[in-house]
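Supplementary notes for students who missed Thursday's class. We covered one full example, reproduced here. Read the sequence, then the structure, then the short commentary at the end.
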Amino acid sequence: DHSGTLRCRAGRTATTPSYSNFNTGMFASWELDLWGRYKLMRKVADANRQAFQDDIDAVSLSFEAEICRLYFLWVNLTQMVEVEKKASDILKEVENINNVSYQRGLISQTVLLEQNNQFQKVFMKYQELDNAQQAVRRALSMLVYNRPDALSVMDQSFSPIDYTQITPAPLKIPSVLVKSRPDIRAAEQRLHAASAMVGIARADFYPRITFSGELSIDALTLTEFGWGARNTQFGPTLTLPIFEGGKIARQVELRKSELKSAGLEYKRTVLNAWKETEDALANYNMTRAQYGNAVQMAENAKISAKRVGASYRRGDESKVEFLLSQLASLDGEVELLNMQQRLMENYIRLYVVSGG
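Structure (token representation):
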């Protein structure tokens, strides 16, 4: 509907009559894909969608690896806190014995002070490890439960972990496995999309034929509104890029430069993947070989502590010597725990860089 007023020169006002216009209709068009333009556009859309999914897979892989790393670090730190607590208790007992010996004049004050400093160092290390263990627990709880207080050491009973079973012996990785990395897949899809964009830009040089049709019904009154008041249009449309050749040529050059950049990015991603995989593989194989030595050293320290304990019970060794042998055994456990943590971190890193 529309109505209004018209002001004349003489100042008189002429009122236009009101009227109604009832209309409805539809319009449709279809373009012939003579040069594969729309086919390439679908290819670009599919490639970008797949690249986005590969990016999501990369983030998911990193997220899973971080949860796994934090869990084993939490277990490791919890065990190290227990070991350092035992070492602190042993050194405290040694310090008490040395205090008695010093009062009796059996040892010098220098020996007593050195022993006290050793106790203070171990106790400080125990406190640092306990604080680190709590921080890792909170971080892991946030990742898994979205709250920092969902996990508690008191609620957990960690079963012994056989690291020789969960980490394979020194190994090799086939090249096809590295190609499955999400970042390589994403870079490859973006390269495909950039290549298709060049084809789309080139297709703009050629004519475009579009078939369009329109059907509408217009009437001034509802009684006239019907099939008799229809209007129809149908026919082809030819579009020729006569005056846009320079613009299209610049677009083609732009798409070619984007294709070159995508190719360089793909090459960089592949080379970086190979380097990361080779470095992770070398570090893992070295740590896996060293782990066996650490296990043997810890076992030797336990055997030595057992022998000193037997001598102590026979009266051949003093209590201080017995306690120091127990301390040496705990040092072997700490070294083994450190090696276990390095082994798991390198194994998780190898898992990530090889594409999961």
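Commentary. The chain has one domain: 5-206+217-353. The beta strands are 5-7, 13-15, 22-31, 208-219, 230-239. If anything here is unclear, bring it to office hours.
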